[in-house]
Design brief:
alpha/beta, 8 helices, 7 strands, 16% strand, seven-stranded parallel sheet
Length: 256
């Protein structure tokens, strides 16, 4: 590719480690010439994110706990202080209690349900509200979802419901922000070995099933997800908003 994001500033939330889809996206954005701002959750994660920023075109590493309004406000202020418009945002945030993933969905406790919704779905709304005033030239907001939002995936449970809420939020945000020339989309990635995926019981069997059943007869490469995020953030994606784009080796089209 050839500097598809040159001259653009991108905010990426949700890098956990080098296996994160968000990290693959950061690598692809940097490759395409974007200037990056990364966030971290708590001081314990700061050093790890700074290490991952080495070798990337990262201009700032900022704290942000999306469950705290004061940290979202501080993020907005820090981005304003940079004096540059924001062109792209990647939201790669999700969380649920391990027991709410392992237990049958009907056993989900109220607190666990609300926590999954807040971190995995509402946070997109909160982030969009915080950053869109900085997207003065329009731009792109992308989030990450999964097939469990529309189909029952064993042991995905409360997270599947949260992802369904996230996808609905994408559509409503796309409608609200379209007049500001801000596009909002989600990438539905196939199962990938990430830190969060390890919290799903019997995840290895999901990978095996996908590799044997998907039309491409393999699992998803994080680089494929990252390149789709580049497309959405670039001018090539200028007519795409409110969509769920599947990057999953085709498993989403299969029945039994």
């Amino acid at each position: 590719m050839s500097n598809l994001l040159e001259g653009k500033q991108a905010l990426i939330l949700g890098i956990a480690n080098k296996w994160s889809l968000a990290y693959a996206i950061a690598q692809a954005f940097s490759r395409e010439g974007a200037t990056l701002v990364l966030t971290y959750l708590g001081e314990h994660q700061k050093a790890a994110i700074e290490d991952l920023a080495n070798g990337l075109n990262v201009a700032a590493v900022l704290p942000c706990d999306v469950t705290k309004e004061e940290e979202l406000t501080a993020l907005t202020d820090s981005l304003q202080d940079r004096g540059q418009p924001l062109h792209s945002v990647v939201h790669s945030l999700a969380f649920a209690n391990r027991e709410d993933l392992a237990n049958p969905f009907v056993q989900t406790k109220r607190a666990g349900f609300l926590l999954a919704q807040e971190v995995s779905a509402y946070s997109l709304v909160a982030v969009a509200r915080a950053v869109t005033p900085l997207m003065t030239a329009g731009g792109s907001i992308s989030t990450l979802t999964y097939l469990g939002s529309v189909r029952v995936v064993p042991n995905y449970n409360v997270m599947g419901v949260a992802k369904a809420s996230l996808e609905a939020a994408v559509r409503y945000l796309a409608s609200d922000l379209g007049p500001e020339k801000v596009r909002v989309n989600a990438i539905s990635a196939g199962p990938v070995k990430t830190a969060s995926a390890r919290g799903i019981k019997d995840f290895s069997s999901v990978l095996e099933t996908v590799a044997s059943r998907a039309p491409l007869r393999r699992n998803t490469d994080p680089a494929e997800v990252a390149d789709t995020a580049v497309f959405l953030a670039s001018d090539l994606g200028r007519g795409v908003t409110g969509n769920i784009i599947y990057v999953d080796a085709g498993i989403s089209i299969m029945g039994l």
